[in-house]
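Retry 2 of 3 after timeout on previous attempt. Resubmitting structure tokens to design endpoint.
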């Protein structure tokens, strides 16, 4: 029988760190039994055993040494189950030297914000300087922990869910001498894991929705559902069963035909895909940019976009050689929805009461609604440059945004019939038509009165007065009086009325027909030259 000489290791060599390393990297029990069988049954050398089992010779020697120290016999040890054999070979002679740790207190302390196992171990080592290492501390805590949460593997359907969230890391921006913390929006497809990331100045509803729009356009397709966290721009009333989405965010999802499926509160595993995506973005995109200085958001997003593109083009480590982009095109893309022709624009809803002039005020501009709704409350939808007015769910008016403040946008069909006849342009055209029927100088006087005022409405009353005077005089005489008024520069209703009452227009006409007087006492115009 070939005897195998067990190498001896001094106590200095087998220190505590080596014991912990062996405990972490111990051989599987099936290989341990193979080593013992080859050694005792076949008498193979350590080199041959190591080559056949695919392990180091030192590992073979340590297994045989532990077997000798345990006082076990062969082949009885080969009949032991794996758990019993492992307990016999890997007992710790020095474990009793470590004081007991109050593991329940450790677990309770971990629930505090910012507390980690590393911090608790450092505090424990302050009173136990010769205690266990951090690795052993973590391993013993995991062994003690009375409960282990089971995780279920999610079999997600291709192209179904897009997971979205904000990264915990921010990027400093120096804009106009002031420092801003840019927020990083991250989105990840559930199956392919394709990533999208961009920086925004805030996490408010405008930036939140705009990031979704750009993410959809980057993919050129829309998923079936979006899984956000319970942040305020997404969810206004969290609930385990029926969360209430922000109205603007719900309108965005409805525009693209996407369902909103928020994760449960304090259940990060509901959106594990984006949590992993955030981890990749923070490590591969944001951390390498920590020493860069950015002065505008566009430059930061160009750098983020370039690094995310490289990350999506990097092969997975599962040995398939596929990238996120390839899996997205082959698996997710065929099951996604096409984008609508019109890009989403933010929709804002307001409530207004129709005033007695059948107008509502939006940003200091007035828009008409049918006069039948005077005094009633209406819903106003602001979307881009379009303003729609609803009453009890039925649309009653639609306008394009008007820019001048203090002015009104009025549709003729919204006015009562009497007010339709009082329209500015219609009134002006009617006054000019009536004046033209009397005479050309009457028309010139009416036009001059209206143009003299910056608002033609202010001259309408004077024009009505001028035309009223025409009713008591012959057309030719009245037209001449208007000509005389224009020559004098008295183009007003009051000036024309004085001319007609005094007959100044007739006197002037008679004077022009009388011959000049020739007398010796009259010097004449030649004297004054």
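Retry 2 succeeded. Sequence:
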């Amino acid at each position: 029988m070939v005897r195998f000489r067990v190498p001896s290791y001094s106590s200095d060599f087998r220190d505590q760190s080596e014991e912990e390393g062996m405990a972490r990297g111990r051989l599987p029990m099936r290989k341990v039994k193979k080593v013992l069988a080859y050694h005792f049954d076949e008498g193979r050398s350590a080199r041959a055993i190591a080559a056949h089992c695919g392990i180091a010779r030192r590992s073979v020697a340590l297994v045989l040494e532990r077997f000798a120290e345990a006082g076990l016999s062969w082949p009885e040890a080969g009949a032991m189950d794996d758990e019993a054999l492992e307990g016999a070979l890997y007992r710790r002679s020095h474990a009793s030297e470590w004081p007991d740790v109050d593991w329940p207190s450790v677990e309770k302390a971990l629930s505090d914000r910012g507390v980690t196992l590393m911090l608790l171990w450092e505090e424990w080592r302050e009173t136990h300087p010769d205690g266990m290492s951090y690795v052993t501390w973590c391993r013993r805590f995991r062994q003690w922990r009375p409960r282990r949460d089971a995780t279920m593997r999610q079999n997600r359907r291709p192209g179904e869910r897009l997971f979205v969230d904000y990264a915990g890391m921010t990027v400093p921006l120096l804009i106009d001498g002031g420092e801003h913390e840019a927020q990083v929006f991250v989105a990840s497809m559930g199956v392919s894991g394709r990533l999208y990331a961009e920086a925004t100045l805030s996490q408010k509803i405008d930036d939140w929705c705009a990031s979704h729009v750009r993410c959809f356009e980057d993919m050129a397709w829309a998923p079936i559902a979006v899984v956000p966290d319970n942040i305020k721009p997404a969810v206004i009333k969290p609930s385990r069963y029926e969360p209430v989405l922000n109205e603007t965010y719900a309108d965005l999802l409805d525009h693209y035909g996407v369902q909103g499926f928020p994760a449960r509160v304090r259940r990060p595993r509901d959106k594990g895909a984006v949590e992993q995506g955030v981890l990749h973005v923070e490590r591969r995109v944001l951390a390498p940019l920590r020493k860069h200085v950015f002065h505008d958001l566009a430059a930061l997003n160009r750098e983020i976009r370039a690094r995310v593109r490289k990350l999506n083009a990097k092969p997975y480590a599962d040995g398939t050689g596929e990238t996120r982009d390839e899996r997205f095109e082959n698996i997710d893309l065929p099951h996604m929805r096409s984008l609508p022709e019109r890009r989403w624009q933010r929709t804002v809803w307001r409530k207004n009461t129709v005033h007695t002039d059948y107008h509502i005020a939006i940003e200091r501009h007035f828009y008409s609604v049918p006069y039948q709704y005077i005094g009633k409350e209406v819903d106003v939808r602001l979307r881009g440059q379009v303003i729609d007015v609803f009453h009890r769910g039925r649309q009653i008016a639609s306008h394009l945004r008007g820019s001048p403040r203090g002015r009104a946008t009025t549709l003729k069909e919204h006015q009562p019939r009497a007010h339709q006849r009082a329209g500015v342009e219609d009134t002006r055209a009617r006054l000019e038509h009536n004046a033209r029927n009397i005479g050309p100088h009457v028309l010139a006087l009416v036009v001059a009165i209206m143009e003299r005022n910056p608002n033609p409405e202010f001259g309408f009353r004077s024009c009505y007065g001028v035309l009223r005077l025409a009713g008591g005089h012959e057309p030719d005489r009245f037209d001449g009086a208007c000509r005389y008024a224009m020559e004098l520069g008295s183009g007003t209703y009051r000036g024309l009325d004085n001319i007609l009452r005094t007959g100044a227009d007739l006197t002037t006409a008679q004077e022009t027909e009388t011959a000049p007087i020739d007398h010796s006492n009259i010097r004449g115009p030649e004297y004054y030259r």
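Attempt log closed. Residues 1-24 have pLDDT under 50 and may be disordered.
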